[in-house]
Amino acid sequence: MPMNTKKKIGILTSGGDCPGLNAIIRAVVKYAHLKDWDIFGIPRGTDGFIDVAQGKVEPESLKLQPHGYDVPGVLQGLDILQFMSGSVLGSLSRGNPAEEDVTLDIIEGYKRLELDALIAIGGDGSLDIIYDLAKKGGWNLVVIPKTIDNDVAFTERSVGFDTARNTVTQALYDLTFTAASHERIMVVQVMGRDAGHLALHSGIAGGADCILIPELCPQLTPKTIEGMCKYIAKLRCDRRKFALIVIAEGVHGLNNQKDTYIAETLANLIREYSHHLCSNGSNEYQGLDEIDTRATVLGHLQRCGVPSSFDRILATVFGIKALHLIEEERYNRLVIWQNGCVESKSLEQIMPMIKWCHQENSCPSPVDPEGFMVRTASSLGIYLGESNHD
Ligand code: F6P
Predict the structure, then answer these.
(1) Pocket of ligand 1, candidates 193, 198, 202, 298: which has the most ligand atoms within 8 Å of its Cβ, to mutate?
(2) Is residue 349 within 6 Å of ligand 1 at its C-beta?
(3) Looking at the predicted structure, is the pLDDT value of residue 294 above 70?
(4) Predicted local distance difference test score (pLDDT) of residue 389
(5) Active-site residue, 149 included
(6) pLDDT surpassing 60 at residue 282
(7) Residue of 17, 38, 149, 209 marked active site
(8) Torsion of CA 376, 379, 383, 389, to 10 degrees
(9) pLDDT at 79
């Protein structure tokens, strides 16, 4: 076992924010305090290192203390970080620091802080960037996965996904009543980048009738629209006059282009096509008459909210695991959640596959089309696109 020498550890949050980031920071600071180690909170992702390199920030001012963000009055001492969304350190989702000068400044900033290790809290997009920087700078890196998309490879869960799943599920529940009152079709656009985890999970939990995810329905096609319309007609004949449709933002439009408002596009297509089917006069489509559709884009509300208890636990377990790895001097690892346990993986081993996926523009951790979640949805009779529909 390595000796327990005093360590200086940096921590930063990179990429889009999500619930649970502050709970990770809290856990890391608490454990480090017990060990008498110093934690340096790097502001605004790797940009904080640039400020240090350029002398704009004094290293001492970055030291984090437990209860460093106290509220006043009788609640003083309340460690509120566990419950707060966002990141107290700020985050950066700007992509790769292309300019060599910037990279050199980042590496210089790390050096000036004389860090023994860095804990980077990031999603799939940040992994590549931080890994390359760490290699260039010779950093001792530990990465904690976070993202509402749940698309970080080799971990079953990332911090933030569970809370977002609850948020979307609640939104679907709420929309059910307005949909029912007006006998409308509500099309709800859910985040997730190129992955459909958030749409699939919350769609099942929220009682959706149709769920379109990029893994099963990469783009809208006339066949999919027709299939949905027929499916909705059948629901209406069966006396369910309203419907909830969940569409993941990663599903492309009819021309296979990315569509920022894919829910709006789908709502319009369903309205137009259903009216076209009705005008054909076939009895099969009578239920579609006067169909009314509305689109809702949940947007960044999915990244907000008090972290769920699972996300707080995951955040805390991941934060402590990161420090345990550093204590054991097992660096350059990704902390992961596997079979209900915390583990870690060597970045050296997993990065080639992740980088290859990024080069190919494919998601490194998509929904398994043959997996139990898809089979569950399919067995419930949820419409998942033409490939999963008889
Ligand atoms: O990766 C998290 C995420 O919220 C995605 O689901 C979404 O596509 C993207 O970030 C939005 O990014 P931005 O906040 O930069 O608009």
Answers:
(1) 193
(2) no
(3) yes
(4) 60
(5) yes
(6) yes
(7) 149
(8) 120
(9) 85
